[in-house]
Specification:
The complex is a heterodimer of chains A (115) and B (113). Chain A is built from no helices and eleven strands. By secondary structure, chain A is mainly beta. In chain A, the strands form two sheets. In chain A, strands 2, 4, 5, 6, 9, 10 and 11 form a seven-stranded mixed beta sheet that branches. A four-stranded antiparallel beta sheet of chain A has the order 1-3-8-7, with no helix packed on it. The mean pLDDT of chain A is 92. Chain B is 0% helix and 55% strand. Chain B contains no helices and eleven strands. In chain B, strands 2, 4, 5, 9, 10 and 11 form a six-stranded mixed beta sheet that branches. Chain B is globular and about 40 Å long. Classes of the chains: A mainly beta (115), B mainly beta (113). Chains A and B meet through strand 4, strand 5, strand 9 and strand 10 of A and strand 10 of B.
Chain lengths: 115, 113
């Protein structure tokens, strides 16, 4: 089956630094990837939709300058949290559109803790 | 706009009892409906999905869900709960198979021995 891998699975960074999370479709090409954020014990909120080779489309209320999304190839999208603050601590999950049945597959998620 | 309402943030059942997790949706077009399970500190695993056709959908781990258009519901059931079913369950809706999912707030299922 189709596999979507996120890296790192867990990261701790200092307040004020930037951290990058990668989302890779391992065995299929994904023209579109979606980034979600999940607060503790809460649901998943769509942050942005990224299409290969073009600018990401951000949901209302998501700071595009803080959450930089790049979809440079058909198998890789990255989310960079810039100038991270403790309130950015969260579980970030990506999903990729493609593969068998041209459906959406989710990554394992990445835990970000900002200290 | 689409939305999902999951009734009950926490459901507790005895091992061997029926599991029923409720989901109602709102959609301006015929919806695609999904149920995902999330175990602690893990990502999402697709249990089942409804796109078109048969309204009773069977998924993994003995779960099934029925799409009822008249009730705008997509409740998840399992005849007999196992301890390993304890997890967070999310219902989701989308406009099609390639548009982003809108998730409900989730229901935490506890299974009591």
């Amino acid at each position: 089956g189709a596999v979507v891998s996120q890296h790192p699975s867990r990261v701790i960074c200092k307040s004020g630094t930037s951290v990058k999370i990668e989302c890779r479709s391992l065995d299929f090409q994904a023209t579109t990837m979606f980034w979600y954020r999940q607060f503790p014990k809460k649901s998943l909120m769509l942050m942005a939709t990224s299409n290969e080779g073009s600018k990401a489309t951000y949901e209302q209320g998501v700071e595009k300058d803080k959450f930089l999304i790049n979809h440079a190839s058909l198998t890789l999208s990255t989310l960079t949290v810039t100038s991270a603050h403790p309130e950015d601590s969260s579980f970030y999950i990506c999903s990729a559109l493609g593969g068998p049945g041209n459906t959406i597959y989710f990554g394992e998620g990445s835990w970000l803790t900002v200290v | 706009a689409q939305s999902v309402t999951q009734l009950g943030s926490h459901v507790s059942v005895s091992e061997g009892a029926l599991v029923l997790l409720r989901c109602n949706y709102s959609s301006s077009v015929p919806p695609y409906l999904f149920w995902y399970v999330q175990y602690p500190n893990q990502g999402l695993q697709l249990l089942l999905k409804y796109t078109t056709g048969a309204t009773l959908v069977k998924g993994i781990n003995g779960f099934e869900a029925e799409f009822k258009k008249s009730e705008t519901s997509f409740h998840l059931t399992k005849p007999s709960a196992h301890m390993s079913d304890a997890a967070e369950y999310f219902c989701a809706v989308s406009l099609s198979g390639n548009t982003p999912l809108v998730f409900g707030k989730g229901t935490r299922l506890s299974v009591i021995a």
